[in-house]
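User: Design a sequence. Structure:
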């Protein structure tokens, strides 16, 4: 083959590979698109476990939620993104607030909706948010807890600034939201009294490693290195900085860890590890036969009882 033709072929191939890699990265880390690349498709199918049942469970909550008087509120992130929150105040005046962090590719009507009625009927106020690059919030890239934890601390400041320093706050999150809660717990204000982390991962890169291996790709080191390099370029942060272990070790508040015993997307061992290293008062609730983020659906009553006991003990 002519050297010029060979060089041109290599260059074209490199460009194609680069373009595929960038599209794959964007599917995972940028605001969601309808058309996905192969990497985006892998990410979506790996997390698809009993999805229809979970959608039905979530939809069963929506009629009650729609009847509530919910206020849309806004703050600006430290990066300049406009973030939207959804605040439901209890009809009986309460100084207790729940801040709820949703999971990857969800929004305030996703994971938070599965818990809102429980908390409102306990007499609490409820704030759920659309994280950066989700729902009605602006932003181009999500942070897998890196951006979300900083933004969530600002949301707590919003609550304290608006309702006073004598309020009490519970923080609760699922999946990426659970990791967000874990990332926050060493830096929360004194108004936060306890934290619930439902199926949190230890580190986003470790979670990506599990996802890629789940579809039969054995050698992931090179893929993840390239992916992280692109993230530094596009989103401006190192995915290694999503690691929540040190924050959990230094937690300022008691923590309840919840995990499905059948979770293969964010492996159950991740939640167990975080429970074991937590440096504050802690409890672990493992739900049998629950896949990822499904604990509330599989054992709603048991989950509520566990929350009741934990809140009574530490609030």
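Assistant: Done.
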């Amino acid at each position: 083959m002519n050297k010029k033709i060979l060089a041109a072929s290599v260059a074209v191939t490199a460009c194609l590979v680069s373009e595929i890699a960038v599209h794959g990265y964007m599917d995972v880390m940028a605001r969601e698109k309808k058309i996905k690349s192969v990497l985006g498709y892998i990410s979506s199918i790996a997390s698809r476990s009993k999805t229809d049942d979970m959608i039905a469970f979530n939809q069963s909550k929506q009629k009650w939620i729609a009847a509530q008087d919910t206020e849309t509120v806004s703050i600006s992130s430290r990066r300049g993104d406009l973030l939207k929150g959804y605040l439901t105040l209890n009809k009986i005046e309460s100084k207790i607030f729940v801040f709820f962090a949703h999971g990857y590719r969800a929004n305030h009507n996703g994971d938070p909706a599965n818990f809102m009625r429980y908390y409102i009927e306990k007499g609490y106020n409820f704030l759920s948010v659309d994280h950066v690059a989700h729902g009605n919030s602006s932003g181009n890239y999500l942070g897998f807890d890196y951006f979300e934890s900083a933004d969530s601390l600002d949301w707590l400041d919003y609550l304290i600034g608006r309702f006073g320093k004598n309020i009490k706050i519970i923080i609760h999150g699922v999946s990426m939201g659970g990791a967000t809660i874990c990332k926050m717990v060493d830096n929360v204000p004194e108004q936060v009294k306890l934290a619930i982390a439902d199926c949190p991962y230890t580190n986003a890169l470790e979670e990506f490693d599990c996802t890629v291996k789940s579809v039969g790709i054995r050698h992931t080191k090179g893929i993840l290195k390239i992916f992280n390099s692109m993230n530094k370029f596009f989103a401006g942060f190192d995915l290694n900085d999503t690691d929540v272990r040190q924050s959990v070790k230094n937690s300022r508040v008691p923590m309840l860890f919840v995990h499905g015993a059948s979770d293969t997307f964010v492996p159950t061992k991740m939640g167990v590890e975080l429970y074991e290293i937590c440096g504050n008062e802690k409890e672990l609730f493992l739900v049998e036969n629950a896949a990822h983020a499904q604990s509330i659906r599989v054992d709603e009553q048991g989950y509520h009882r566990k929350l009741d006991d934990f809140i009574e003990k530490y609030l």
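Residues 1-17, 35-39 have pLDDT under 50 and may be disordered. The chain is about 45% helix and 15% strand.
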